[in-house]
Amino acid sequence: MSHGPVQYFVFAFPGNKFTGAIVPALADVVSKGLINIVDIAFITKDAAGNIITLEINDLDDETFNAYEKLVDHTEGLLSDSDLADFAAQLPPNNSAALLVFEHAWAAQLASAISKADGLVLAQGFVSREIVEQVLQARAAA
């Protein structure tokens, strides 16, 4: 079975205002087969710097039910060390969601590249802010 590229994102929510409002958007891309979530975890750091890390099985029932339907099974790609590293970077009074997912839409392309003895030479993302700046500059020109 071929797999698409795997990527991680860490989303911060200042003021510890993480509400789970991202669930509908995640559910949409998962249901369309665009991504497969392979690991998910959550971090909360209070104003005093106290840290709580939670993996999906540690969530309360309501939150677990919201996320569990998005994840077929977790691969355990996020280690305790990963969670500690991200928690250390998180400013006080913030929450974070850590998401590891496979780009399922790219699995067939990745397989074709591999079979053709192709190699990935570079990859990256252009931030939404940069794209918006470029589009604004073009519109102003």
Q: Tally the structural domains.
A: 1
Describe the largest sheet. Answer: 4 strands, antiparallel
Low-confidence stretches: none
Name the average pLDDT. 89
Strand content: 15-25%
Strand order of the largest sheet: 1-4-2-3
- Give the overall form: globular
What Rg do the Cα atoms give?
18 Å
Q: What letter string, H or E per element, gives the SSE order?
A: EHEEHHEHH
Tell me roughly what share of residues is in helical segments: 25-40%
Distance N to C terminus: 48 Å
How many alpha or pi helices? 5
Structural class: alpha+beta
Topology, number of strands: 4
Can you offer a commentary on this structure?
With 141 residues, this protein is an alpha+beta fold. Helix content is 35%, strand content 23%. The chain has five helices and four strands, in the order βαββααβαα. The longest helix is centred in the C-terminal third of the chain and has 13 residues, at 128-140. The protein starts with 5 loop residues before the first strand and ends with a helix. The mean pLDDT is 89.
Short description:
The chain has 141 residues and is an alpha+beta fold.
